[in-house]
Specification:
mainly alpha; 4 helices; 112 residues
Length: 112
């Protein structure tokens, strides 16, 4: 309901989430090493890209649908693209967690 009163509400909420993603990148850089760090940072960046695209899809959707006269198609395709990008980011974060856990267990067994 608030989207009708504030046209760019989705973009503003994405900006707040962007700050959270920046904090996540800093934490990943400080805690992880090697492959886990790279996968974690790329995963957070991909999730941030998905959030930005989702906000643009929600905010600009009415303008694009009025221009192309096919509201369901434009919003639906945008939503599918955002969902695929978000799934890719989550998969990268899971791979980063697995890589970090493997490197920690290897280190505790006396590997390094």
């Amino acid at each position: 309901m608030i989207e009708y009163r504030i046209p760019m509400a989705n973009v503003l909420s994405a900006a707040v989430l962007g700050v959270c993603y920046v904090v996540a990148v800093v934490v990943v850089n400080a805690r992880a090493e090697g492959r886990a760090r790279v996968l974690g940072v790329v995963g957070v960046v991909v999730l941030m890209l998905g959030t930005i695209l989702g906000a643009l899809n929600g905010s600009l959707g009415p303008y694009l649908t009025s221009a192309w006269r096919s509201s369901v198609d434009v919003y639906g395709v945008g939503s599918v693209v955002v969902a695929i990008i978000d799934v890719g980011g989550v998969v990268l974060l899971v791979l980063a967690a697995v890589a970090a856990r493997r490197s920690m267990s290897y280190r505790y067994r006396g590997g390094r």
